[in-house]
Write a structure and sequence with these properties.
five-stranded mixed sheet; alpha/beta; seven-stranded mixed sheet; 31% helix; 10 helices
Length: 352
């Protein structure tokens, strides 16, 4: 497994050397994008999502009085993985049910994505050790076998499932950002995360079966694009498959990289084209959306329209914000449906 992973990294580096020769492009609203446009990304993502829909694991909070989830944005990871590591560690220490990231997860160099993938693999293994029954298939007297995750299997005793480490459904859910796709970086991002357009459910009640719905949109190009709008209009993300079986959707949470509101009216910040912004606002109302999480502008902003709260998160990147600060948000969802949120402080400072 380790040798295969290293071989994959060499392939990524070689491919990236070719991809970087392509020219960047700027969208009509000023967002830096690259050669793989939103139409192609959404088509690829939708195909992957439909073929692997069963792998988007339903999170189970039905026996909890409260579940929480953690949200961060714009980490722009390079060679220093400190802030991303801090977020993942916080999520695990707090037993957050899932962690969401609002895009621009890494600056687009292959070595940065290798660092990111290794970090996620590390925390996937930590998550497996914490939440699943572990079996070691090697010799405990041989150190390199003890340190090799491919020697382990993990048992989900609740659902009677067996996983290898790389199959563990680690609950880290990102959206793609504009910096993730520059220099044709979509190839790097999708190699790890596969789909930029998907949804996830959290089971909150057994009788009647009720779920909270998490929707992740591809807005990396500053536009939804025709294909994504069409799929949304067709109800792909409406939860209809659940509702037609008599299941209930209680809350809907939406995640997007591109922001809808500007932090200040006099401040430049690229947002959606006006028609798409109105389309989304109407769609959020149809989905009865409880909260929308946005990034991109590296500035905190809070708005409320009707029952929907819009949180635009500041950048958690140590280069943009080198001092400790409240760069994350944790959402608390109680059994009775009450939703509250709080800022979460990050303390990591950049390496000197």
């Amino acid at each position: 497994m380790v040798i295969m992973k290293q071989f994959t990294h060499y392939i990524i580096l070689a491919a990236a050397a070719l991809l970087y020769s392509a020219c960047d492009k700027v969208s009509p609203i000023g967002v830096l994008v690259s050669g793989t446009g939103v139409e192609d990304r959404v088509k690829m993502s939708y195909q992957y999502y439909m073929e692997h829909k069963g792998e988007f694991k339903i999170q189970d909070a039905s026996d909890m009085d409260e579940y929480t989830f953690l949200v961060g944005a714009d980490s722009h990871l390079t060679t220093d993985d400190g802030r991303m590591r801090e977020m993942l560690q916080m999520g695990m220490d707090n037993n957050d049910l899932l962690y969401a990231h609002l895009g621009d997860i890494a600056d687009t160099k292959a070595e940065y994505y290798i660092t990111l993938e290794e970090l996620i693999d590390e925390y996937r293994w930590k998550y497996a050790k914490k939440h699943y029954q572990e079996f070691f298939g090697g010799d405990p007297e041989i150190p390199f076998q003890v340190d090799d995750p491919s020697r382990y299997t993990y048992i989900d005793t609740l659902n009677n499932l067996i996983y290898n480490v790389n199959e563990i459904p680690y609950p880290f859910y990102p959206v793609v950002g504009n910096h993730d796709i520059t220099h044709n970086g979509w190839a790097l991002w999708s190699n790890i995360f596969h789909s930029s357009f998907y949804d996830v459910y959290v089971l909150v009640e057994d009788d009647p079966l009720s779920f909270d719905h998490f929707i992740f949109l591809d807005s990396a190009s500053g536009t939804l694009g025709r294909e994504q709008v069409k799929l949304i209009e067709e109800g792909v993300l409406d939860g209809r498959d659940y509702e037609k079986n008599g299941y209930l959707v209680r809350h809907t949470f939406v995640f997007s990289h591109t922001n809808i509101f500007r932090p200040r009216a006099v401040e430049f910040a690229s947002t959606f084209p006006r028609e798409e912004m109105f389309f989304l606002l109407n769609q959020f109302e149809k989905w009865d959306t409880r909260m929308v999480f946005l990034g991109h502008v590296h500035k905190w902003d809070y708005q409320q329209e009707g029952v929907t709260e819009y949180l635009t998160l500041d950048s958690m990147c140590e280069a943009n914000n080198p001092e400790p600060g409240d760069y994350l948000v944790r959402v608390h969802v109680k059994k009775d449906g009450t939703v509250t949120w709080e800022h979460v402080r990050m303390n990591y400072t950049p390496k000197k």
